[in-house]
Amino acid sequence: MTTFEKPMPVKTPVSAPFWDALADHTIRIQYSPSLGQYVFYPRILSPRTLADDLEWREISGKGTLYTFTVAMKPVSPHFAADVPQLLAVVQWDEGPRFSTEMVNVDPVELEIGMRVRPVFFDYPEHDVTLLRYEPDPAG
Q1: Which residues form the ChsH2 C-terminal OB-fold domain (predicted)?
Q2: Do 32 and 78 lie in a common domain?
Q3: Could you give the CA distance from residue 111 to residue 113 in angstroms, rounded to a whole number?
Q4: Which of 24, 30, 76, 105 is most buried, taking the most CB atoms under 10 A from its CB?
């Protein structure tokens, strides 16, 4: 059986502060004073205002499960050993939504609106840390 190395994210000058924070097991995303909101994905100008005022700020990373799907077929051969995959979108308490994967949970326990907390997965061989989520028993 052929195995494939999983694709990993590539750090860019714009996204580097996000990836560097994950390496420290913290989450930093951009905040726009002109918009008065946090924004995600990393970008150069604030959405809607197009202001050059984006600041990197640390957030808790806690949030709610906005939506999910249980993928019984791998999205590509790279993930064949990972099914079922619990693909999810988390809405951070600070506002933006984040596409991720749920871990440390049985698929039948997943509920839209449940509280979740971040889990950091280090891949030192790729110099990257990935952000996943698990149920937050503290709510």
Answers
A1: 56-120
A2: no
A3: 6
A4: 30
Calpha distance 109→59 (Å, rounded): 26
φ and ψ at residue 32, rounded to 5 degrees: -110, 110
Considering only CA atoms, which of 115, 117, 119, 113 is closest in space to residue 132? 119
CA–CA separation, 91 and 33 (whole Å): 20
Contact between residue 92 and residue 102 where contact means Cβ atoms under 8 Å apart: no
Q: Please state the φ and ψ torsions of residue 101, each to the nearest 5 degrees.
A: -140, 135
Is residue 8 situated within a structural domain? no
> In this predicted model, what pLDDT tens digit does every residue of 11-53 receive, in sequence order?
999 999 999 999 999 999 999 999 999 999 999 999 999 999 9
Tell whether 4 is covered by a domain: no
> Rounded to whole angstroms, how far apart are CA atoms 39 and 97?
9
Q: What are phi and psi of 4, to 5 degrees?
A: -120, 140
Q: Provide the 10 A C-beta neighbour count for residue 54.
A: 22
Instruction: Please give the Cα distance from 88 to 45 (Å, whole number).
Output: 27
Number of domains into which the chain is organized: 2
